[in-house]
Structures are given as C-alpha cells and as structure tokens.
Amino acid sequence: MRLVLLLLLPSAVVEAGDAGLPAELWVGGWDTHNVLRLDWRTGESRGLFVPSGRGGLRSAHHFSFGPDGDFYVASYGTSQVIRYDGETGSFIDVFVQSGNGLIKAHTAYWNVDETILVSSEQGDRVLQYNGWTGGFRRTFVRPGEQGLDGPEFIIEGPGGNLYLTAQSRQVLVLDPIDGGVIDVFVADDPDTPDIDETGGLFWPTGWSSDPTDICTSPRAKTTASCATTAKPARF
C-alpha cells in the first residue's frame, strides 16, 4: 500500500501540542483511495475524512482547502480534482474534469488570484482553472517548456513566484500571474555529463523555501508537514 503524506488538519480539529505541533495529520491513500486522519505523535488512526472511492476518488494525491473552505483532492487515477465539504468530507462534485491535456492530476494549488492550478503529470503541463466554477481557463505552463517533464508539486516561494518540481530533475520558477517559466532554479546541464549540477536530485516531489516553517504564506498550507492551524474563511 502506497500512502502519500500531504497536509495537516484545519483549525477546526487541530489541538495545540508540544512545541506548537498540531495533534493530527492527514494522509492521502494511493492504493486505498481515501484520506486518513492520523495522530501526529503516535501515528494511530483517528478515522477517515474521505472514505475509499467517495465521489470516484482514485489514488488521492495532493489536496488543499480552497478559499470557500471546501476540501479539494487531486484524484490522480481519474485525472480530476474532486471537491468535498471542508467540515464533513461529504462529496460535493467533480470540480475539475479531465481533458484539455489533464492526464494524471498531481497537484491542486490555489493561486494568489484564487484560480486553481493543476499539474498534469503525464500531460507535461500546468493548467489553470476558474476558482469558482472549475472551468478551464488556459494552459499555465506549456508542455515541455524549458524541458519540463512530469510536473508535480507547486508552492509559493521567495518574492511571490511559484516553484514547480518535476520528474525531469528540475525546479522551475513560474510567473504567478502571467504563467510560464521565468527561470530554471535547479536543473542538470546536459552539456556537462560528468557533472551533476542538481547534487543528486531525482524525481523531486516537494520542497520548502524555509526548512523551519513551510507555511510562509496563506497559500502554502497545501504543503507536506505544514504546521498551520489556520483554515480559510467560508464565504
């Protein structure tokens, strides 16, 4: 069974722990197609937030709370983003449908403009969707741009730019408003085959710009082991 560790619980159920650590952790089930609640310290189960297969979920990957307070899960196996009630975990709808180059949804990231960015792992692109309707807006990063192959994790980094990890052993810097790659932060130079400029990086799936506090902005609460106790207000 493959589990994908992704996100801590919202403030509604987080309890203050030692050294400010939260009491619960959420884990996406790759083979079990669910979202589990775990005790942060002991690893013991506290039940399911999203039961197996609810709403058609297949291989729960990245997930996050949207600005409406609902819970959005990248369903890798169905190439969709599925929306659940942020309090109960009840299925609401399939918010983002497959198509438009979305093949194997990896990350569902809420951008500064309240649109949702979805990385298409096998489509080799990042797509942008309307944050209220889920409708397709545009291709945010073009297929193969700057050598992009297998885009995965998106996070806001220094200066407000977005950083995208990829199976192509890269970390790319994206323009958060206009889209597209504006810089290559980490990559191996093919012209120097005897030197690995990445330091041995292989298949990066996540990163933090601050090792002491991954939650450097309100939108960074989608990251792994993000010690936030804040949840967006429901509109």
Give an overview of the whole structure.
The protein is mostly beta strands and 235 residues long. The chain has a domain at 3-141 and 212-222: TolB, C-terminal domain (Neuraminidase, 6 Propeller). Helix content is 0%, strand content 38%. It has strands at residues 3-8, 24-29, 35-39, 45-50, 60-65, 71-75, 80-84, 91-96, 105-110, 116-120, 125-129, 136-141, 151-156, 162-166, 170-174, 181-186. Strands 1-2-3-4 form a 4-stranded antiparallel sheet, with no helix packed on it. Strands 5-6-7-8 form a 4-stranded antiparallel sheet, with no helix packed on it. A 4-stranded antiparallel sheet has the order 9-10-11-12, with no helix packed on it. Strand 10 and strand 11 (125-129) form a beta hairpin. The chain is globular, with a radius of gyration of 17 Å. The termini are far apart. Mean pLDDT is 77; it is low at 1-19 and 211-235.
